[in-house]
């Protein structure tokens, strides 16, 4: 994985990011990664089909749910 350093983030933006990360039960780094991914990876990927009235909890589906805050 690559490393990205972000400098000169205002205290207000930092505080808001930390609050958002807490709401999503993620670290600050994971929250920023999720925000960046959401901004550059096309959304609208279809949800998996219902199977006997329930979601098939595949590892890919769970990972996507976590990444998008649907925990």
Report on this model:
The chain has 71 residues and is mostly helical. The chain has one domain (11-67). Helix content is 49%, strand content 0%. It is built from 3 helices and no strands. Helix 1 packs across helix 2 (28-40). The radius of gyration is 15 Å and the shape is elongated. The relative contact order is 0.11.
Compile the SSE list and pairings.
Layout: H1 11-23, H2 28-40, H3 59-67
Helix pairs in contact: 1-2
Please give the count of helices. Answer: 3
Give the overall form. elongated
The termini sit apart by: 24 Å
The amount of beta strand, in percent, is under 5%
What's the SSE pattern? HHH
Class per helix and strand makeup? mainly alpha
Number of strands: 0
Q: Uncertain regions: pLDDT < 50 for 5+ in a row?
A: none
Computed CA radius of gyration, to the nearest angstrom: 15 Å
In this structure, how is the largest beta sheet organized?
Answer: none
Helix content: 40-55%
Mean pLDDT score: 81
Tell me the count of domains.
1
Keywords summarizing the entry:
71 residues; mainly alpha; 3 helices
Quick recap of the structure?
The chain has three helices and no strands.
